[in-house]
Amino acid sequence: MTERLETRKYTFTVEGETESWYFEWLQKQINNSPERIVNVSIQAQVQQSPAKFYKRTTAIVTPVVYHICDVESNEERFVKKFEGILSEMKDAKKQKGIRYCLGYSNFTFELWMILHKRNCSGPLTQRGQYLNPINQAYNEKFENLDQYKHEDNFKRCLSKLCLDDVRKAIDRAEKITESNKTNSKPRKSFGFTYYRDNPSLSIHTAVKLILKECGLLSEVNPGKNHS
């Protein structure tokens, strides 16, 4: 008789559908892996505002939430928007006792997707510049990022990935982080730490933790991007 595995639950709030589809794909990959020691239930709800999410739940139901978001640009309006999100995440602890953890991408989630297939350590000046690396990484010919984000197209890209690609993305992301630690000064805001320089990200810390707890990664470093 096959031993029934424990199911561990992870709650995410994400900015868009591509992020939600990614975590849906990751859940399936983990639960189909014969090496896993637990199953996972990854709930990734599209909700740009942490406050709107935590006001509808409790610390008993969702004690820890990971918020996946983009920095988008160093323009003041985008920085203000990002720091507003951090403020809401901090308030979740004060208002509801819910601990929010930060998984950001600077500029966008496309950086994380590229890292599954190749390095992307050079700085960019605007978000549209991710198009060529996406096409190269996934052997596609998307005319713009909106086309890439169409459900059928994005899921076709996901179909070209496996868990080993996720492990490589984590490794590449950690190398970017180590470089930033050496060459940049981190910014601290509302109890969270991030880099304003592109590229930078912390989304990999949540993914790494999940793989570790599933027995699919040898070591874990959850980072300090939480309140």
User: What would the average pLDDT be, to the nearest integer?
Assistant: 93
Quaternary structure: single chain
Q: Helix content range of the residues, please?
A: 40-55%
Q: Which secondary-structure class do the elements indicate?
A: alpha/beta
From the N-terminal CA to the C-terminal CA, the straight-line distance is 43 Å
Strand order of the largest sheet: 2-1-3-4-7
User: Can you tell me the residue ranges where pLDDT is under 50 for at least 5 consecutive residues?
Assistant: 220-227
Basic shape: globular
Strand fraction equals 15-25%
Provide a compact summary of the structure.
With 227 residues, this protein is of the alpha/beta class.
What's the layout of helices and strands?
Blueprint: E1 7-14, H1 17-31, E2 39-46, H2 50-54, E3 64-70, H3 76-96, E4 99-106, H4 109-115, H5 131-138, H6 145-149, H7 151-158, H8 163-183, E5 187-189, E6 192-194, E7 200-201, H9 203-213
Parallel strand pairs: 1-2, 1-3, 3-4
Antiparallel strand pairs: 4-7, 5-6
Helix pairs in contact: 1-7, 4-8, 8-9
